[in-house]
Amino acid sequence: MSTPIKASDTLHSIKYEIRGQLANRAHELEKQGYEIISLNIGNPGLFGFRTPETMRLAIIENLAHAEAYSHQKGIFPAREAVVLQQQDRGVMGISVDEVFIGNGVSELIDVSLRALLNNGDEVLVPCPDYPLWSASVALNGGKVRYYDCKAEDGFSPDPGQIESLINAKTRAIVIINPNNPTGAVYSEETLRAIAALAERHGLVVLSDEIYDRIVYDDAKFVPMATLVEDTVCLTFSGLSKVYRACGYRVGWCVFSGDLERADDLLHGMELLASLRLCSNVPGQSAVQTALGGFQSIEGLVSPGGRLYKSRQTIIDRVDASDYLTVQAPAGAIYAFIRLDEKLAKTLDDQSFAQRLLEEEHVLVAPGSSFNTPYSDHFRITTLPDPDTLNMVFDRIEWMLDKGA
Q1: pLDDT at residue 403, as a whole number
Q2: In a domain? residue 56
Q3: What's 248's DSSP letter?
Q4: pTM over 0.70
Q5: What share of the chain has pLDDT > 90, as a percent?
Q6: Distance CA 181, CA 314 (A)
Q7: What's the total number of domains in the chain?
Q8: CB-based burial of residue 92 (10 Å sphere; 0-12 exposed, 13-18 middle, 19+ buried)?
Q9: Which of 62, 341, 357, 398 is the most buried (most CB within 10 A)?
């Protein structure tokens, strides 16, 4: 018998349960004929949201010019549109040379960490986190140090606790705002404090802002790049969420702040971008139209808009439940829901999610998928319409009423 070919040992510490065993089981059930309500991924197109028509037309009209490789950093109109957006937000001193277009933010997270890290370098990552960040740090030889974002603090970080984790090996700090998975939107005071500690210690700030325009009620999104001056800031965003264009796979990374210090890192990222030749060219044609046109997301997140109504449905149903609590999400497209402590002896997040899938055919992401030290939360996307969400919560209540 031949020796099995094993995968890299590096993968042993990597998990991405959002598309892991539960999702695979859901797919098996679908092949058996069951209809699964999949709430594990924030994928707008699966819930009836369309990419704005002007973006689709921009791709079609430019398709004849999209057959060759583009510049490794991306096409000029797309990068220029990103620069103009940043300038409109108050981020000055940048040009298209500081903008990279990638195959979604996911690719750019990996490329930026590959360009930055040496073996053993440490990166500060929020807990709970979006697991791609932790995985990308580990895959590129780094070590994750988690800083707490506690429910009792509205899932907002404590800058003092963050600073206590910094040592000689710390290279960067990750900010996810608006936050996935919790829906928290950080205050300007908190962000200023984090920017100040990053500047004191010379850390690179990695700011994941893919949900930048998805905020509700009085929540205010503050771009991190407007607060960071004396160190290097990388801002990540893209078309996937705000513009409901996940399948286009178009994201961008913008360098700002102390650009003199960033020269070698910029060259490193350009080298890595060159090795992969370029990102998806047709999708890049939609960037200029997206950023410069009518912002349809504003109607969706305002009172009366679909995303607003779906979020409110979740808040109302959780408030009415004897089994659940939630910090009302101030932004993004997720709710991070806590199971009541009376369930703890018989039901953790994994067993809850497994039962919900098998018995009620609803797929959610266990909270521990987001690298938490606790196991009493689960994440759902707020994308379904209110009727679907009411059905989901009916099923959750029926299941828990039957006994944990």
Answers
A1: 73
A2: no
A3: G
A4: yes
A5: 91
A6: 15
A7: 2
A8: exposed
A9: 357
Output the six-digit token pair for 2: 């031949």
Please identify, among 292, 327, 358, the residue that sits at the C-terminal boundary of a domain: 292
Nearest one of 225, 243, 216, 239 to 332, comparing CA atoms? 216
Q: Name the token pair of 113.
A: 């960490």
What is d(CA 331, CA 122) in angstroms, rounded to the nearest whole number? 28
Where residue 150 falls (left for φ over 0; alpha for ψ -120 to 50; beta otherwise) is beta
The pLDDT value recorded for residue 217 is 96
> Quick check: helix, strand or coil at residue 327?
coil
Do residues 113 and 200 share a domain?
yes
Instruction: Point out the residues of the chain with pLDDT beneath 70.
Output: 1, 404
Residue with tokens 């797929």: 363
- pLDDT value for 59: 95
Query: Which of the listed residues 277, 292, 307 is the one where a domain comes to its end?
Result: 292
Start-to-end Cα distance in the chain: 46
- Report the alpha-carbon distance of residue 356 to residue 345 in Å, rounded: 17
* Burial of residue 160, with CB atoms counted within 10 A of its CB: 0-12 exposed, 13-18 middle, 19 or more buried: exposed
What is the model's pLDDT at position 281?
94
Residue 56, SS3?
helix
Domain that holds residue 94: 69-292
